[in-house]
Amino acid sequence: MKFLIDAQLPRRLADWLRSAGYEAVHTLELPGGNRTQDHDINALSVAEQWTVVTKDKDFVNSFLIAGKPHRLLLVVTGNISNADLEKLFLSHFETLAQLLESHRFVELNRATIVVHT
C-alpha cells in the first residue's frame, strides 16, 4: 500500500510509514511542495494508486463527487498536537491499513475509526 501525506499532517508520518515498509511521500517531497493543488494530488493518487492521508475535508467532496482520490484516509481530530496526532495514528495504524485494503474511504477520529461505504 502507498500513502501520500497531505500538507496539514507532519512529515514524520511519511517517515514512519517508510520505516514500517510502506511507500509513502509527504506533499513537501512533491515538486510543488505543500502548495501542490488538491486536483494534482488526486491525479497522482489515481495514477499511482496512492492513499491520500489528510485533514482536508475538500478531499471528501472530491471523493464523493468524482471518486478521487484513489483511497482516502481522513483524519478528524480538531486541534491536536503533532505528538498526540502521531500517537493516535500509530496506535491505530494496523487496523487502518487492514480496512484500507478493502475500503476506499476510512476516517480516523479521536474516539473511533469509521468506514464509509
Molecular structure report:
There is one protein chain. With 117 residues, the chain is α/β, with parallel strands linked by helices. The protein has one domain (2-116). The chain contains 4 helices and 6 strands. It has helices at 11-19, 38-48, 58-66, 82-102; strands at 2-5, 23-26, 50-54, 71-76, 105-109, 113-116. The protein has a 6-stranded mixed β-sheet, sandwiched between helices. Helix 4 links the parallel strand 4 (71-76) and strand 5 (105-109). The longest helix has 21 residues, at 82-102. It is globular.
Any descriptors?
single chain; 117 residues; alpha/beta; 6-stranded mixed β-sheet; 6 strands; globular
User: Total domains, how many?
Assistant: 1
Could you list the spans in which at least 5 consecutive residues all have pLDDT below 50?
A: none
Seen as an oligomer or otherwise, the chain set is single chain
Main pleated sheet: 6 strands, mixed
SSE pattern, N- to C-terminal: EHEHEHEHEE
Strand neighbour order, sheet with most strands: 2-1-3-4-5-6
- Tell me the helix content: 40-55%
Which helices and strands appear, and what pairs or packs with what?
Elements (H helix, E strand, L loop, with lengths): L1 E4 L5 H9 L3 E4 L11 H11 L1 E5 L3 H9 L4 E6 L5 H21 L2 E5 L3 E4 L1
Parallel strand pairs: 1-2, 1-3, 3-4, 4-5
Antiparallel strand pairs: 5-6
Question: What can be said about this structure in brief?
Answer:
It is built from four helices and six strands.
